[in-house]
Amino acid sequence: MLVLNSRLTGLTLAAAMVIALASPGYAQRSEINGRRAAAIHECSVQSSKFIEHTWGDVEIQSYRACMAEHGERE
């Protein structure tokens, strides 16, 4: 009985790891690459000229538009 429980526990843990590694969240974490990093930097620099206390939401909207132009999520 003890051997069966430990095998079942092992299989359950293995299945949980496979599910976690196949999840979209794991894939999203690993997709930051050079192109995305360059887009983030460029868009941050471009939108930084619109400071929030004078331009309101223009800063974030500018950043979002720039990331969309690069084909990236914000």
Question: What descriptors fit this protein?
Answer:
5 helices; 2 domains; 0% strand; 74 residues; mainly alpha
What report would you give on this structure?
The chain has 74 residues and is mainly α. The protein has two domains: 1-31; 33-74, no CATH class. Helix content is 77%, strand content 0%. The chain contains five helices and no strands. It has helices spanning 2-22, 24-29, 34-47, 52-55, 58-69. Helix 3 (34-47) runs antiparallel to helix 5.
Morphology: elongated
Mean pLDDT: 74
Q: Helix amount, in percent?
A: over 70%
Q: Structural class, from helix and strand content? A: mainly alpha
Beta-strand residue percentage: under 5%
Q: How far apart, in Å, are the first and last alpha carbons? A: 52 Å
Work out the helix count.
5
- Evaluate the radius of gyration: 22 Å
Stretches where pLDDT is under 50 for at least 5 consecutive residues are none
How many beta-strand segments?
A: 0
The domain count comes to 2
